[in-house]
Amino acid sequence: MANFESLFRPLAINKLTIRNRVVSTAHAEVYATDGGMTTDRYVRYYEEKARGGCGLCICGGSSVVSIDSPQSWWKSVNLATDKIIPHFQNLADAVHRHGGKIMIQITHMGRRSRWDGENWPNLMSPSGIREPVHRATCKTIEEEEIWRIIGDFARAAKRAQDGGLDGVELSAVHQHMIDQFWSPRVNKRTDEWGGTFENRMRFGMEVLKAVREAVGPDYAVGMRICGDEFHPDGLNHEDMKEIAAYYNKTGMVDFFGVVGSGCDTHNTLANVIPNMAYPPEPFLHLAAGIKTVVDVPVIHAQNIKDPNQAERILDAGYVDFVGMTRAHIADPHIIAKIKMNQIDQIRQCVGANYCIDRQYQGLDVLCIQNAATSREYQGLPHIIEKTEGPIRSVLVIGGGPGGMEAARVAAERGHKVTLVERADALGGQITLAAQAPQRDQIAGITRWYALELARLGVDVRLGTSADAAMIRDEQPEVCILATGGQPFIEQEPEWGAAEGLVVSSWDILSGAVEPGKNVLVFDSICEFSGMSVADYLSAKGALVELVTDDTKPGVGIGGTTFPTYYRSLYEKEVVMTSDLNLVQVYTEGDQKIAVLENEYTGQQEERVVDQVVIENGTRPNEALYYELKPESVNKGQIDVETLYANAAQPVLSEPQNGMILWRLGDAVSQRNIHAAIYDALRLCKDL
Amino acid sequence: MLTDWLLPILLFGALALMLIGATRRVLAWRAGRNEPVAVVAGLMAMPRRYLVDLHHVVQRDRFIANTHVATAGGFVAALALALLVHGFGVDSSILNGLILLSAAGMFVGACCIAWRRRNPPGRLSRGPWMRLPKSLLVFSTSLFLITLMTADWFPAGLVGWVFSGLLLIGLALGLAEMLVGMGWGGPMKHAFAGALHLAFHRRPQRFGGGRSTGLKPLNLTDSTLGVAKPTDFAWNQLLGFDACVQCGRCEAVCPAFAAGQPLNPKKLIQDMVVGLSGGTDAGYHGSAYPGKPVGEAKGNPGQVIVDGLVSAETLWSCTTCRACVEECPMMIEHVDAIVDMRRFLTQERGETPGAGVQVLDNLIATDNPGGLDPARRFDWAADLELPLIADVGKADVLFWISDGAFDQRSQRILRAFVAVMRAANVDFAVLGNDECDSGDVARRLGDDATFQRLARHNIEVLGRYEFNRIVTTDPHAFHVLANEYGDFGGHYRVQHHSMFINELMEQGQLNLQPKALGRVTYHDPCYLGRYNGEYESPRSVLSTLGIEVQEMTRSGYRSRCCGGGGGAPITDIPGEYRIADMRVDDARAVEAETIAVACQQCTAMLEGVVEPRPQIKDLAELVSEALVTEARA
Fold first, then answer.
1. Domain of residue A583, CATH code
2. Same-domain check for residues A476 and A503
3. How large a percentage of chain A has pLDDT more than 90?
4. Distance, in angstroms, between B556 CA and closest chain A CA?
């Protein structure tokens, strides 16, 4: 176990030897492509994983084989044209250079897409049934189109092969075209492409045959399938075993990737990329079930983030490869660190799902805690080299994510770093966020920083308030203010914050204020904080109504995370109300009256409660900044042109007599963890 | 005159007593196992070995070397001349003059010895050895004055019979020490046994600037495997033990002794002497085995050594680093003796301590010490696509991987070396899963049967292919391939990677852009340095990398072992300190930030020292980090 013997046991897929049992499974990268062609950013993103020791990368989640399966929404790779081949060669070379292997997922997405863009296609599906997650209407696919798409699959696979990629994975998961044909929930056809088992299998089988014909017997071809659609009218686990065995029998499939859960509803989609609300490897049993009926290696990803967990799964033989995809997004050097016996230095994925939730909004995939991921091409480093310039004394005020990252990066550069934090623990708002039910794992971000700061010898002073006198006394050459913010509950005087009529979500989550019995939460932000405080209160036994003036409580939360909040809130009978603004709070006896006003009608209504909690974001703690600004050599300014160019701040190369002052994170304006960490990294990497 | 008739009696009497004693001694040695030696050639070569080879070692301490030349040279010359003059009555003023000169020289030497013995360093034995300088002074003075007297060079009036009588008593005492003691086990035994030891040394290759470090193969059909009792040693090993002068240079360099483990090479040799002649170690007046009292060990030629004379922990404390052998001015082979006794413990008694039994079982079952699946030997290189020699048939370099293949830390060294070879376009290939453990650990743990089986397997496999040389990053494998497989028919040109990389550098095959590393020291692995005399290549490699090596006090042939050799980490005999900690302290003393090493075992041992400590990097890693890689396409 300690040596990770099972994890480091090579295994062949067809003729391809994979150096270890860890796979970065197919996911939509989004930043990935320019018109469906892989970019430098894409190549460097995968090269970093290969450099870090990942065994196999399957890139290009949902890369399309046909011109009428739109790729632009998620900027996936377009294999419908020969133009892709030279791009693949760059990608393959970059990964092979480091001993990694790379395959690509290919698919036709059928109804699981959007029609209102690119070529404005009519989306197609076996029986023309609408898909709810993308609100996608579609036509019933015709026989001629079926055969064209089968041919498209074969040509796409050949392009991957010609481009030097090591294999292809046919997506028959996530309700793409192949498994749309499989599932009786979607395939209502009565011709030879629907109805009986054999008929429903036919499209996938013809695709498999055509692909195998195109690439020959020695090229790796796999299938990604689901383990159970979790729909009463869909495919259950026994159905999936039958399907896997059926394709396995052909001898044409070299591996199966198994994903627990279907995903054509919001609720099932959340299962597919389990966030921090889930236990580890929640669907391993489904993949293990598939493994019992097939003869080829089985890959399974889904909440496998920890090396010991991975080793345990592999050692027990549940599956042959573990997918550690988000684990690699958080730390592409995870394998190298295992090998270097630096397991404590692995930046472990916490399941915040910032990556995938951005993807579902069509935004580039980023890691909440690792700002270098996917920015390798811009020179943002995963491994920070020591400076060859002067060693400076750096004083960081504030131990939230921005302050911790600034201290870490400065210390990695070799500077003498002190971090001062008012609270008794590091973490800042992460500590608050981790108090809510099912959100505790977000504290993993802090845990890693605490370990790293200790390893790097940063002088961390907890329980210490900083003021201007103390900072002057320290005489730092660089002072970084990451002092965060304060709940902004004074925005509307009528809310009665000054009179103590309302409390903030921080008051509740920090335990400073006891939860009431009958509570109204007013959430103008509509992200995690409001949902979290409502969940926290109801878990403590409060009757809670969560009110927002926005269109839906939690509307700012991405597609894989709002469902886990909803599950928790609905179960505890939290009332969620939208479109109402909080205009006033007043007391009546020992009760509080919250006056709400409809955004669209102006109609007012009242709630009688014993506690009103407001989540209205933060205002920066900037007093210290303005006090120090005049005496700093740079007047507190960050040169944004060089910052955005990821270059060294000009002030660093000027003769220095006095203190450089920067401020970061919510101390400037409210953004999020990633923003604070990103700024800290790019600011300090050249310090 | 008194002297006229008493002198010959004294001289010949002492000689006769010496001869009787010597004969007994020789018979005691001959009770050991037979080992054929070239008698005449050995005796012919002896003077040169004594005067040149041995002197080279002694001369590391110039003071004592010169002292010894004066004393021993004076004594030998004076005795020979005295026999002529006083024994056979040759009357010659020239001879008399020469006796005076020799005795005077001896006197000066003896004075120096006496001076050093005023407050001797701890490594020197006391007891009779404290008496020796006095005996030397008495002998040389007496002989000087007697010669003056018999030559009538004394003012006649001064010579009274009392004075003559005193001189004769002095001479008699001197002769008793010098001649009788020589034959009967006094300190001067070393001269007689030492001379014969040099003549009949088991490793004549060591003389004349040569090197012989491979262990001798065990005859697996012997009735007793290994050495149980003193007479199981080869007779010339027993002879070698008698050559010990108890100077303690071995003790001073022994890493196990320094770490407070129960081993002192000098005491071990003296215990062998006790075993050879029978008795107890009560007459031993040097440092004890750390943690063990002196006086309780008993033995005799026919008694099993570990049953009362030497404890098994003493034998298992040795790292086989050869520092003692390297330092021994009498060229005694401590490591051979220790391994011989280990062979008995392991192969006859099955008493390999610590994890030893497990490791040997693993080697038997899986051909690797970790007991790992042999089919996984090349897992570490799954992504490197190394050419298998079975596929390519022949190659310039056969890259011997060794068991580092199973260890994650060592794999980094292996991968770094592959990168270096690839950068230099070296034509190399590997054996793949056909490679087995070299047998090094099995052999040092006393299991020569397993060693021989592994060696024969590897030799058979190597024999199938054509290659110019074997290159390995493992000095232990390097040693057995180069020096121990020959006994089983495996003769190869073997290079350690430091030598090979140095060649590549000299040929300009590597495009390097060294990085600044701060202060770097270099730790000589025992099996590369003392076992194979390779001190220069690693330093040359480092120098090419722009590194100015900060040498530790103990470096080169005096390098301190990391503690990892000879199966010591497996048998794991407790001491007061850890050898690896002491070695890292050596590096700290020169303020090194990096310890460059050239051995996976050293890497493991030194990295096992708690941080903060200098970082440990193998040469291959340092070189691969300095490689200029091609710009991104």
1. 3.50.50.60
2. no
3. 94
4. 30
- Verify whether the Cβ–Cβ distance A340 to B412 is below 8 Å: yes
Q: How confident is the model at residue B1 (pLDDT cuts 50, 70, 90)?
A: low
Domain boundaries, chain B: 2-199, 228-347, 371-506, 520-626
Q: Which range of residues forms the domain containing residue A641? A: 393-486+620-684
Whether pLDDT at A333 is above 60: yes
Q: Are residues A18 and A139 located together in one domain of the fold?
A: yes
Q: How far apart are CA B587 and CA B566, in angstroms?
A: 23
| Whole-number Å distance between alpha carbons of B591 and A343 | 29
Helix (H) or strand (E) holding B527: none
The answer to whether the bond into A487 is cis (omega within 30° of 0) is no
Report the C-alpha gap between A106 and A168 in whole angstroms: 7
Interface of A with B in 573-592 (CB under 8 A): none
CATH number for the segment(s) B371-506? 3.40.50
> Per-residue pLDDT tens for A280-290?
999 999 999 99
Residues 251-270 of B with CB under 8 A from A: none
The total number of structural domains in chain A stands at 3
Residues in chain B closer than 8 A to A9 (CB atoms): 376, 379
> What CATH number has the domain bearing residue A475?
3.40.50.720
Nearest to B379 among A8, A90, A93 (CB): A8
Q: CA A468, CA A457: separation in Å to the nearest integer? A: 25
Candidates B376, B383, B632; nearest CB to A19: B383
Flag whether residue A519 sits within 8 Å of chain B, measured between CB atoms: no
Q: How confident is the model at residue B169 (pLDDT cuts 50, 70, 90)?
A: confident
Q: What does the pLDDT look like over B527-571, one tens digit per residue?
A: 999 999 999 999 999 999 999 999 999 999 999 999 999 999 999
* Mean pLDDT, residues A251-270: 94
ipTM of this model?
0.80
Q: Is the pLDDT of residue B180 over 90?
A: no
Distance, in angstroms, between A238 CA and closest chain B CA? Answer: 36
Give CATH for domain B228-347.
1.10.1060.10
**Both A353 and A235 in a single domain?**
yes
Chain position carrying tokens 């065994």: A55
Tens of pLDDT, residues A53-62: 999 999 999 9
Do A285 and A164 share a domain, yes or no? yes
Q: What is the pLDDT of residue B633?
A: 35
Please judge whether B384 and A339 are an interchain contact, meaning their C-beta atoms are less than 8 angstroms apart: no
Domains B228-347 and B371-506 equal at CATH topology level:
no
- Find the mean pLDDT for residues A318-333: 97
* Residue A463, in any domain of the structure: yes
Q: Identify all chain B residues contacting A3, using CB atoms and an 8 Å cutoff.
A: 408
Domain boundary among A616, A635, A662: A616
A3: contact with B, CB 8 A cutoff: yes
CB-CB under 8 Å, B376 with A9: yes
Q: Do A18 and B382 touch (CB under 8 A)?
A: yes
- Whether the pTM exceeds 0.80: the reply is yes
Nearest CA in chain A to B376: A9
Is residue A374 included in any domain, yes or no?
no
Q: Which residues of B touch A5 (CB under 8 A)?
A: 372, 376
Mean pLDDT of the A617-636 span: 96
Which tens digits make up the pLDDT trace of A645-655?
999 999 999 88
In this structure, what are the phi and psi dihedrals at residue A558, rounded to the nearest 5 degrees?
-70, 175
Mean of pLDDT values over A219-242: 96
Q: Which of A594, A616, A638 is the last residue of a domain?
A: A616
CA distance A440 to A504: 20
Residue A574 lies in a domain: yes
Cα–Cα distance, A198 to A187 (Å, whole number): 13
* A20 touching chain B per CB within 8 A: yes
Contact A383, A409 (CB under 8 A): no
Instruction: Tokens for A570, please give them.
Output: 């609905």
Fold of B520-626: Rossmann fold (3.40.50)
Angle ∠(A421,A425,A429) on CA atoms, nearest 5:
80
Q: Are residues A579 and A632 in the same domain?
A: no
| Residue A348 distance to chain B (closest CA, Å) | 21
Residue B342 near residue B226 (C-beta atoms within 8 A): yes
The domain that holds A188 is classified in CATH as 3.20.20.70
Residue A62 and residue A111: Cα distance in Å, rounded? 13
> Which chain A residues have a beta carbon less than 8 Å from that of B382?
10, 17-20
